[in-house]
Design a protein that fits this description.
3 helices; about 70 residues; alpha/beta; 4-stranded parallel sheet
Amino acid sequence: MKIGFIGAGNMAGAIAKGMVNSYKFRGQDIFITSKTVTSAQELARTCGAYAVETAAEVVKNTDVLVL
């Protein structure tokens, strides 16, 4: 299952990192975008996820969306 995050703030970071640390999700199954691409890239780097530029890319590539 692929999970998408629109927003890369503290809550998104805690959820994404928790998902990966639980070993139930792989970083490759997580897509993240944010108003500032650098925050999405930083969060993606810490949990092995993909940072994408637009919310449309997140929606297109995921099964579940976290706002």
